[in-house]
Write a structure and sequence with these properties.
GO terms for molecular function: heme binding; iron ion binding; monooxygenase activity; oxidoreductase activity, acting on paired donors, with incorporation or reduction of molecular oxygen. This protein is an alpha+beta fold. The protein is 50% helix and 7% strand. The strands form 3 sheets. Strands 1-2-4-3 form a 4-stranded mixed beta sheet. Strands 5-8 form a two-stranded antiparallel sheet.
């Protein structure tokens, strides 16, 4: 037997050849950074700074590029036309989610991580209906305004707890909408638990952050630790005849129908995910907005001139003032543009089948052709775009997505955030009312008298990017504003008593 025959018929060279192809980029794929055998580009997917690396690769390889993660393929859409074509026009093909070990444990009941099957469509349909603009025009809108009044009073009485007041407020709004219970304080169970669980989930889902060994018990915190505690509280309340307008009440009463019926466990998980999905991301967006406002007094001054023409010291801003206060909307859009909370992921079926599709929001928001001087915080860039995000997110022409400049802060395609209306209205109400009430600035060191510098680049890089804890100085604008705050907070407290545990 010749040596040549042995080599060509032995399984060993064939195995070496197969292994050698792992991590290799097929010539038909979009371009991308050079790969290494077996690992592909895994070594370049950093745990920190990935959003900046995506921008760098996009500049180098174009609007569509690819990464090889061993056998897996990631295609990055750093191009608005491609995003429109693949996630919206061909949305049926690109609306699934990538599956990995962490998601299979931590997100097994989370419809945000499911493929686009019938149950996913059913739950998204209910979420969109329950969190719709029409729902927020009724009692749910009154809930938001009441909680914002309590938020402003909290800032007035304990300004040093600024971060916790933000987290409490958004958690309380979400829990009232979903479970019918409010969080009177951050220390209250309803105030902090959802934030704790969301933080763990986002931390473990960050690309490149998975430790080689991690106990399943840690991940399972994100899978089901909240819902078994929330549901009995609702059941106990309902047994006593206390039925409220929450989704947890409407589902069993049949006033909120579902196309695919849910058993008790799935229903509880669905409700818990709605709270988890909205509270942490809204809090992160608010933390970013207040951080940039604190270092841009000129932006605050412009917003206050507008607010003072409409409200005055004896009237807090309300949602009915939205058309008269367009600059607040500009502030929200610019805050979501300059520090988007997360990138968006899709699993495709054509380029190639089962590849991961990622929308690099941070990089898209720094396209100099769309956003001149993108590193500058400048709400004025949105002055000609007065609509809400939901008005633009579904535009058929990607270059008319807010007249070319709309952000991707709420995602895109069939995976656009179903809580877009709740999130945007909470942001608007909290920012408008805080600017009405306070001058926001950096703290002054009491010993040296020096102004403490606020670092707008200091962010915690989990999947949900949010600022590192910071302090701000909140100066009440007048005694008249203080009197109005206390009056409105007293009214709000009376209204919110119906949602006490």
């Amino acid at each position: 037997m010749s040596v040549l025959y042995i080599l060509t018929t032995s399984p060993i060279p064939y195995g070496v050849l197969i292994v050698g192809r792992i991590g290799h980029r097929d010539k038909r794929l979009p371009p991308g950074p050079p790969t290494l055998p077996v690992v592909g580009n895994i070594h370049q997917v950093a745990r920190k700074g990935l959003h900046r690396q995506m921008k760098k690769w996009g500049d180098e390889y174009g609007g569509i590029f690819s990464l090889k993660l061993a056998n897996a393929t990631m295609v990055v859409l750093n191009d608005r036309v491609a995003i429109q074509e693949l996630t919206e026009t061909r949305g049926a093909l690109y609306s699934d989610r990538p599956l990995d070990e962490v998601v299979s444990i931590a997100g097994q009941h989370n419809f945000a991580f499911w493929d686009a099957h019938a149950l996913w469509r059913s739950e998204r349909k209910v979420a969109a209906a329950a969190l719709s603009a029409s729902q927020l025009d009724g009692e749910l809108g009154l809930v938001q305004e009441a909680e914002v009044a309590m938020f402003i009073q909290d800032l007035l009485t304990t300004p040093d707890q600024f971060f916790f007041h933000i987290k409490r407020t958004v958690a309380s709004i979400a829990n009232i909408l979903v479970w019918g219970f409010r969080a009177p304080s951050y220390e209250d169970w309803w105030g902090h638990t959802v934030q704790d669980v969301s933080y763990l989930l986002f931390k473990f889902l960050e690309p490149g952050s998975y430790p080689p060994r991690r106990p399943a018990s840690i991940l399972e915190i994100s899978s089901g630790s909240i819902e078994p505690l929330e549901s009995p509280r609702v059941s106990d309340r309902r047994r006593k005849g206390d039925k409220r307008s929450s989704l947890a009440d409407r589902l069993p009463d049949g006033t909120q129908p579902m196309d695919v019926p849910l058993d008790t466990e799935m229903e509880n998980c669905f409700l818990g995910i709605l709270v988890e999905g909205g509270a942490e991301t809204t809090a992160s967006s608010l933390e970013t907005a207040f951080l940039f406002l604190a270092v841009h007094p000129e932006v605050q001054a412009k917003a206050r001139r507008e607010i003072d023409r409409v409200c005055g010291p004896d009237k807090m801003p309300s949602w009915s003032d939205f058309p008269k206060l367009p600059y607040i909307n500009c502030i929200i859009k610019e805050s979501l543009r300059i520090r988007p909370i997360e990138d968006d992921w899709y699993r495709g079926m054509l380029i190639p089948k089962d590849s991961i599709i990622i929308i690099p929001t941070w990089a898209l928001h720094r396209d100099e052709n769309v956003y001149p001087d993108p590193e500058t915080y400048n709400p004025d860039r949105f002055l000609q775009h007065p609509g809400l995000a939901a008005d633009y997110a579904g535009k058929g022409d990607p270059m008319k997505r807010d007249d070319e400049t709309h952000h991707y802060g709420y995602g895109g395609g069939r995976r656009v955030c179903p809580g877009i209306h709740v999130g945007e209205r909470s942001l608007w109400r909290m920012i408008a009312t805080a600017l009405w009430a306070f001058e926001i600035g950096p703290k002054t060191d009491p010993l040296t008298g020096e102004v403490k510098r606020l670092d707008t680049s200091a962010y915690v890089e989990t999947l949900n990017h949010h600022p590192e804890p910071y302090e701000v100085d909140l100066k009440l604008r007048s005694d008249g504003h203080g009197k109005t705050i206390r009056r409105e907070a007293a009214r709000a407290a009376e209204f919110l008593r119906r949602f006490a545990e």
